[in-house]
Amino acid sequence: MTDHTFEPAYLALYRSGELARRAEQAQAALHACRLCGWDCGIDRAAELGPCRTGTQALVATAYLHMGEERPISAGGGSGAIFFANCDLRCQFCQTFRWNIKGQGQALTARELADLMLDLQARGAANINLVTPTHNTPQILAALALAVEDGLRLPLVWNSGGYDAPQALALLDGVVDIYLPDMKYSDADLARRLSGVRDYPRVNRAAVREMHRQVGDLQLTVDGIAQRGVLVRHLVMPGHAENTAGVLRWLAGNLGPNTYLSLMDQYRPAYRAFAREGINRPLRPDEYARARALALELGLTRLDDSLLLEPHPSQQREAHG
Ligand code: SF4
């Protein structure tokens, strides 16, 4: 049963005028951009950083996604908007044509707002912003227009977890559901496989701040996410210690009520075929060990597929 008393967090900011102020502050952030862990400080109207995105958002695709985690896709499906480019450079990226090659269409704030409203009209349970961090200003500008025209769905911030304080401060009170990756506990592995420095430090600070803003994941009685943090971790072949580090940190810092999506879907893609160690799928025993460790550490709110082979249309797109 849907909770009809629910209203998304951004409505209070809209009524007070704060949402419009945030959108303005976010536009200013484009000219000294420190939205992600790259911490560039550049003017994106004049040059491009590693995210290769200037002042306009590029959208790769948008649709009603039935294959996200159950609390996200329950109901009418998740209204997913996939942004092109990314702040990570994962060697195993499944969506590299969008996230690394940058295939997408430049949208104005008005066009992005209309896309949100269209997904709402088609029955989406939420607006799921996929790989959003480098587009924080463009999203806030579009959101201000969409709310004015009747958007009332919860916002899902579906990021690779490399979000910096500048982005998260702009999103405080705007986002209802944070859906961050925690990919690595090993900074050297993050550098080698995703081309970023300091991933665990940036990522842990981001997840702590997300949790401070919205808390543990809250569900309706029929299991639909309304507010809170849902953490994703993709178990990688041959990297059990990396997974153990993520799980121990989560258990020790966010606690046993953390809703965790422990993903078994790893398959080589993009450049991973040529990289020793990640050029094969995850084995069932590797996933079973990761799952057993999560349970041993008290992380029992698991959203996992128990190694059931997903239908291709049910595949979740990994970031990077
Ligand atoms: S979003 Fe990240 S990579 Fe892009 S310009 Fe800003 S700090 Fe640099």
Amount of beta strand: 5-15%
Ligand inventory: iron/sulfur cluster
Count of domains = 1
In the CATH scheme, the class would be Alpha Beta
Radius of gyration from the alpha-carbon trace, in angstroms: 18 Å
What is the number of helical segments per DSSP (H or I, 4+ residues)? Answer: 11
For this structure, the CATH topology is TIM Barrel
Shape: globular
Q: What are the low-pLDDT stretches, counting only 5+ consecutive residues below 50?
A: 306-315
| Sheet of most strands | 9 strands, mixed
**What is the first-to-last residue Cα distance?**
35 Å
Q: What is the mean predicted local confidence, pLDDT? A: 93
The CATH architecture classification is: Alpha-Beta Barrel
Helix content: 25-40%
| Secondary structure: number of strands | 9
